[in-house]
Design goal:
Layout: H1 2-20, H2 50-58, H3 73-81, H4 83-101, E1 111-115, H5 125-130, H6 140-149, H7 156-168, E2 171-176, H8 183-192, E3 200-203, E4 213-219, E5 234-236, H9 279-287, H10 302-310, H11 312-331, E6 342-346, E7 353-354, H12 356-361, H13 371-380, E8 384-385, H14 387-398, E9 402-410, H15 414-423, E10 431-435, H16 444-457, E11 461-467, E12 482-484
Parallel strand pairs: 1-2, 1-4, 2-3, 4-5, 6-9, 6-11, 9-10, 11-12
Antiparallel strand pairs: 7-8
Helix pairs in contact: 2-11, 4-7, 4-9, 11-14
This protein binds 2-acetamido-2-deoxy-beta-D-glucopyranose (NAG) (4 copies).
One 2-acetamido-2-deoxy-beta-D-glucopyranose binds at residues 103-104.
InterPro entries: Acid_phosphat_B-like (IPR005519), Acid_phosphatase_pln (IPR010028), HAD-like_sf (IPR036412), HAD_sf (IPR023214)
Pfam family, one: Acid_phosphat_B
GO molecular function: acid phosphatase activity
């Protein structure tokens, strides 16, 4: 504890003095490119963008990893101990509360909120800090000793949400990978830091079988949020420190690297570029499907999103996801002759083609979507390839993987879309599925699920599914693995 407190004081001092000397530039309205304000400001780590790595991890693109890349140790340490982790947690918890307060909860109902415990309601940061964020491989004995101290602090932003939910009359259910023998100490720990009441504290199982309606589900791991009975909405809290496959087994997570030297967060904000809203947090919320149904980006984030999209961070993030996708494909050992039924599903806009020239002229998402002017742009056939996706596409074609484009573009745009695809290098495909009349007005997830279902009925095996929207990737028949490309400019439900 003492070390983390010292370290926090040190940060506070640094940040305060930096503010005092107006070190951080204010954002102006112009969106002309200088360099990305997304945080890397270039390449702090040779050959690897730790921001991209974190993006990949937090969006469930990079999975089954055992340790943080060694070269990202500093970055993760700075992120976790700096203000950006707290801001991101705040953004997600605020969004969760907006959702809960929109539901007119009745005080005596059976509406439940499911919270994970570690890194969601309780924080083990003191443990990780004391252990240099994992200077040695994960040691279950040692971690359990820590758990049995009952000294885990609350994640303050989650505690706030918890208190508000309790006031609304929502039932609290904790579902954790901690084991039964840790029940007493976990209860004591929860109470000691302010979680005074709950309905259930359980090992993972289907709470809905007990008659609850799960209105929300908060966790730091995607394994908390995917699967069945996930609730009305999910909220993904940040955790770039470890990956858990199966929560029930739990705690066999690995660890992390050497000591961290704390200066200030290298996550990019270094403080508050934009008063009242952290655009990094907003983007984090959007990309993790925690902030949904938005119409435009916050006005204050126009600059940030513009710089991100035009700067190299967007390209690096796209590369990280496409690289990960190809690494995955290689593990499948596709034999060229056996691959007849194997397909890869690509979305089009902001996945294989980029409409950045259009959005650059229209405020990067700060303007409300104008179907008329966007369709005029589509009909020019001048969309660019997203270069990183084009590379993946070419590798897949070489492996004889069948290509299926599945897009929300409409049938009347077929010819121009085909021409546009070919003109930028997508020369062949098996199917180009556009939105027909019977799907007009239907949500994208429903339309795309139905199309993928047909593909599977026809005998295709979807080995991968790539899109920039969660509505490309959720629903049914999603394929063996999904890949979420960045898109902080617009939301399609
Ligand atoms: C909640 O109540 C408000 C005001 O009575 C109403 O406008 C809104 O539609 C209700 N929302 C839901 C989800 O029932
Ligand atoms: C794991 O932690 C325990 C308790 O701190 C210690 O006795 C043991 O030597 C550690 N094991 C390894 C492999 O470091
Ligand atoms: C692919 O081949 C490697 C090496 O031969 C093997 O270890 C791996 O299990 C195979 N993967 C699949 C999915 O068959
Ligand atoms: C939408 O775009 C069209 C075509 O560019 C333009 O005429 C129209 O005024 C725009 N609508 C709005 C609400 O801006």
């Amino acid at each position: 504890m003492s070390r983390i407190m010292l370290v926090s004081l040190f940060v506070a001092t640094l940040v305060a003095s930096a503010y005092g000397s107006s070190y951080y530039p204010l954002i102006t309205n112009e969106i002309h490119l200088i360099r990305p304000k997304s945080g890397s400001g270039g390449t702090p780590v040779n050959g690897l963008s730790c921001l991209s790595w974190r993006f990949g991890v937090e969006t469930n693109n990079i999975i089954n990893w055992k340790t943080v890349p060694l070269s990202c140790e500093d970055y993760i340490g700075h992120y976790m101990l700096g203000s950006q982790y707290r801001k991101d947690s705040k953004t997600i918890n605020k969004e969760a509360f907006f959702h809960a307060s929109s539901l007119n909860i009745s005080k005596n109902g059976n509406d439940a909120w499911v919270f994970d415990i570690d890194e969601t309601t309780l924080s083990n940061l003191p443990y990780y800090a004391e252990n240099g964020f994992g200077a040695v491989p994960y040691n279950a004995t040692k971690f359990n000793e820590w758990v049995f101290t009952g000294n885990a602090p609350a994640l303050p932003e989650s505690l706030k949400l918890y208190n508000k939910l309790v006031n609304l009359g929502v039932k609290i259910v904790f579902i954790t990978g901690r084991t039964e023998d840790q029940r007493d100490v976990t209860e004591a720990n929860l109470k000691a830091v302010g979680y005074n009441t709950w309905d259930r504290l359980v090992l993972k199982k289907k709470v809905e079988e007990d008659g609850y309606r799960i209105i929300g589900n908060s966790g730091d791991q995607w394994s908390d949020l995917l699967g069945t009975n996930i609730g009305l909405r999910t909220f993904k809290l940040p955790d770039p420190m470890y990956y858990i496959v199966a929560k029930v087994k739990g705690l066999d997570f690995p660890v992390i690297s050497n000591q961290i030297h704390l200066l200030r967060p290298q996550s990019g904000s270094g403080g508050g570029h934009v008063k009242g809203v952290s655009c990094l947090s907003w983007r984090y919320g959007v990309e993790t499907n925690s902030i949904i149904n938005w119409k435009t980006i916050p006005v204050a984030c126009e600059d940030y999103v513009g710089h991100y999209m035009l700067g190299d961070q967007y390209r690096k993030d796209s590369k990280a996801i496409n690289d990960e996708a190809f690494l995955y494909v290689k593990t499948l050992n596709l034999s060229k002759n056996a691959a007849n039924d194997v397909v890869w599903v690509f979305d089009i806009d902001e996945t294989t083609l980029s409409n950045l020239p259009y959005y650059a002229q229209h405020g990067f998402g700060v303007e409300r979507f104008n179907a008329t002017s966007f369709n005029e742009w589509v009909f020019t056939g001048k969309a660019l390839a997203l270069p990183e996706s084009l590379k993946l596409y070419k590798k897949l074609v070489r492996l004889k993987v069948k290509i299926v484009f599945l897009t929300g573009r409409t049938e009347d745009q077929r010819t121009v879309t085909e021409t546009n695809l070919r003109s930028v290098g997508y020369n062949s495909w098996d199917k180009l599925l556009l939105k027909g009349k019977n799907f007009v007005g239907k949500p994208a997830a429903e339309y795309k699920s139905a199309q993928r279902k047909i593909l599977e009925k026809e005998g295709y095996k979807i080995i991968g599914n790539m899109g920039d929207q969660w509505s490309d990737l959720l629903g049914t028949n999603i394929g063996l693995r999904t890949f979420k490309l960045p898109d902080p400019m617009y939301y399609i439900s």
